[in-house]
Amino acid sequence: MRQLDGVPGSVKTQAVVLRSIRYGEADRIVHLYSATRGRFGAIAKGSRRPKSRFGGRLEPFFRLDMVLYEGRGDLLTVTAASTVNGHASLRADGPALMAAGRACDSVLRLLDDGEANEPAYNLLCNYLALLDADPAAASAPGLALAFRLKLALAAGFSPELGSCARCGEAEHLSAFSGPAGGVVCSACEGDGFRLTGQAHRFMVEALARPLAEAPDAPRQVAALSDRAVTETLEHHAHVRLRAAA
């Protein structure tokens, strides 16, 4: 965020609306994510009135240029908001809408309040733009899982996929362990679950490729990959995310 010249307490930023909650008779509290501030909350006073200057811009998945006032409380106050991308096509498609909701919920749960994370912000914007450009892509679990893997990476909790997370062995990686935080070899399986070579390759490729080129994930591959990410985040970030698809 940057402070506006000559306006004490006023800041300008671009942000994505993660969640929007009705508050009082006419106000709205919004949970936002920006590249420069990370996750934060703000109140939009009078935004639910019929002639509000905000219109419908403060709904989830809107990407906005915003001006806010930062006072002494935890919540900032929205003073102006203009649409960068309202993702209209995404909103008109049920599966895409649900996929976007899961993505924003993951950001809310996984990323810390008030900590700037530009890679995470860019990833979220990219994912919403892809869903908006091709809502049918929401039905492809590979894209949702690739987003989740990349979000875990941006948050600092990416699973170890190159060698055994327990002993460092580079071969015979036949299982995955959430407590260990990655793939494990046959000698270190312990509390891990069996991981197919196809699922292992999917996760490696999903992290290596741009999000728009996410690999396909057949049902078993998707289930194993989702379990791997979920268990890693449960043990190391202490959060449980909704199923990716």
What is the overall shape?
elongated
Number of helices: 6
Order of helices and strands: EEEEEEHHHHEEEHH
Q: Uncertain spans, ≥5 residues at pLDDT below 50? A: none
Q: Tally of extended strands?
A: 9
Tell me the strand percentage band.
15-25%
Evaluate the radius of gyration.
20 Å
Describe this structure in words.
This protein is elongated. The chain contains six helices and nine strands. Helix 2 (94-110) runs antiparallel to helix 3 (118-133). By secondary structure, it is of the alpha+beta class. The chain folds into two domains: 2-88, OB fold (Dihydrolipoamide Acetyltransferase, E2P); 140-236, no CATH class. The strands form two sheets. A five-stranded mixed beta barrel has the order 2-3-4-6-5. It has a three-stranded antiparallel β-sheet with strand order 8-7-9, covered by helices on one side. A hairpin with a 3-residue loop joins strand 3 and strand 4 (38-44).
